[in-house]
Amino acid sequence: MPRAIRAPVLAGLAVAVLVALAASACSSEAAPAAGPPPPEVSVATVLTRTVGQWDDFTGRVAAVEAVELRPRVSGYVQRVAYAEGQEVHKGDLLFVVDPRPYQATLDRAQAELARARAEASLAHAQDARAQALIEAKAISREEFEQRRANTAGAAAAVRAAEAAVSSARLDLQFTQVRAPIGGRAGRALVTEGNLAQADATLLTTLVSQDPVFIYFESDEQTWLRHAPGAGEGSNAVRVGVSSETGYPHEGTVDFVDNQVDARTGTIRARAVLRNPDRMFTPGQFARVQLQGTRQAPALLVDDKAVLTDQDRKYVYVLGPGNTAQRKDVVLG
Question: pLDDT tens digit string along 69-79?
Fold first, then answer.
């Protein structure tokens, strides 16, 4: 009997526990946890403006003036008179070739000139006496003409000696190799004690610093958008180097080639800009933006609002009920 009584009691307790658990589960589903509030975003009005188109190119910096410096006389380099890499002015002394042989040549030429002048003076005096003697019929006509010819020959010898002196003086001056332009000098390719051959041995290079050229090439289709103003050199450019953000330097196009390269389908252009802080160095890579000559209306949005989805660009616009809607865009 005790077992028969206990069995129903345990069954009732089990049912009561299940009912309590079910009630608890229903209570938890009926009251879910509160989620985070929707994020706040800022909106901005799209602006409509008339803007000019800018096209991007890659270019190279080039010096306006560049010189490969070679001696005009042969000889051994006696002195390198500049610091490598420094900026020099036009006329500054850069190299000295041993001047002693050329000084000796000049001295010899001056001596020859003095002798020629003495001989010319004697011939002139003899010619003057011959003039008086011929009038007195004291000499023959042949001797008179011989003295007259001697005078002309002596005068020609003087002019030749003067030319030799001028040439020797020039050679002596050329032993001092000076900068033909102002700019930055490269390293000395020939040092003291080495032989330099006239018009052959490269001593160093010079490149001007301010202003500089930027050469870049454009495809035919792109250049047609700029062609109306290209021939006048009126297109504005903006330039930046690899270490800079954006295009902080401004210049203008001053040259466009006279034909399109048939092999590449491109045309070469050149921009000129100032370089007072020496930011640009010949041979350096540069990023170039060229301004078009046509103006067109455009919609302007903040760069931060433009998002990327693989190869597509899109923005979010404010739709009905203040909801954000995606719109694909094409950037100009």
Answer: 999 999 999 99
